[in-house]
Amino acid sequence: MSTVAASVKVAAVQAAPVAFDLPASIQKVRHFTKAAAQESADLVVFPEGFLSAYPWRYAFDATIGAREPRGRQWFAKYYQSAVAIPSPEFEELRSIARDYNVFLSVGIIEKERGTLYCTSILLSRTGDVLSSHRKLIPTAAERLVWGRGAGDGLQVVDTEIGRVGGLICWENYMPAARLSLYQQGIEIYIAPNADDLPSWVASMQHIAKEGRCFVISCNQFCKVADFPSDYPPFSPGHHDRQADGSPWTPDAVLSHGGSCIVGPLGTFVTEPVWDREEIVYAQLNRDDLLQARMDFDPVGSYARPDIFTLTVNRKPGDNVVFTD
């Protein structure tokens, strides 16, 4: 990219989708993208699994050695509310980026054949797909319903706003994955997630300081009311409870947010926002990247390739290769 903007305005949308309702959730993407564009945002970021659900508190009635019909039925609903690439729903996402002239990063549940993937999509201002990254390792019970991504998604792309890439939620705790992005010269590091613990915010500061890059941490602010009334964990009679042992109520908070934007020295450009729906903005100044690298560059002045090396398999995760 020959010309890169000296200053970029970014937006992290801390909100919840209409869980298991893909058309309604896409309309929320349009609503918040329009609002961010009206504030002159260049890049708009949505959380992990925004289209159309992060399945809070539910392992789809699966235990070791047993599955239940209700869980299979809800998995089918989850699959039906996921996004295929290509599809009319995905084309709608592309049109949103075009309509509001923004770079658009959206966490989607992607469906391909019989498998779901937790995917982060980056679209250009013209709606072109710049990168598509599937989460390498789903965390804990996520592994039941999400497949694993491959190395072809470890991409950093050149754009007019800088070199953009990222990782999803706890794969940010994979040092080798982070290093693969640093080696590609990442400048704007997108971290859609579902972690509202204070320790997560500390991790975002560490990654920004380690990578000498800007980090956009984007999480949902989500309540029980954002889910269907018959969603099993929050239905009457289900064993799941709040931390104090009481039944779930519509106003109970599932994710407190904590979205924030961190500069390349590990300090906040925008402090974490908790317990409310909000678009979190920041102005990123490119010169800050250069200043931060005066004394530390993880793949340059502070690297020892004569001692440490990393090999990344960038091939797609195809099971079968056909030759004629």
Brief summary:
The chain has 324 residues and is an alpha/beta fold. Helix content is 23%, strand content 25%.
Q: Which descriptors would you attach to this protein?
A:
alpha/beta; Nitrilase/N-carbamoyl-D-aminoacid amidohydrolase; 7-stranded mixed beta sheet; 6-stranded mixed beta sheet; 23% helix
Notes on the structure:
With 324 residues, the protein is an alpha/beta fold. 23% of the residues lie in helices and 25% in strands. α1 packs parallel to α3 (88-100). The protein starts with 6 loop residues before the first strand and ends in a 32-residue tail after the last helix. The model has no long low-confidence stretch (mean pLDDT 97).
Shape: globular
Q: What is the strand content?
A: 25-35%
Major sheet details: 7 strands, mixed
Radius of gyration: 20 Å
How many strand segments? 13
What structural class do the secondary elements suggest? Answer: alpha/beta
H/E topology pattern: EHEHHEEEHEEHEHEEEEEH
Mean residue pLDDT? 97
Query: Looking at this structure, what is the CATH superfamily?
Result: Carbon-nitrogen hydrolase
| Count of helical regions | 7
Number of domains: 1
* Amount of helix: 10-25%
**Briefly, what CATH class?**
Alpha Beta
Distance between the termini: 38 Å
Describe the secondary-structure layout.
Blueprint: E1 7-14, H1 22-38, E2 43-45, H2 69-80, H3 88-100, E3 103-112, E4 115-123, E5 129-134, H4 142-145, E6 157-159, E7 162-166, H5 175-183, E8 188-192, H6 198-211, E9 214-218, E10 221-223, E11 253-262, E12 268-274, E13 278-285, H7 287-292
Parallel strand pairs: 1-2, 2-3, 7-8, 8-9
Antiparallel strand pairs: 1-13, 3-4, 4-5, 6-7, 9-11, 10-11, 11-12
GO molecular function: catalytic activity
Domain CN hydrolase: 8-286
Protein name: CN hydrolase domain-containing protein
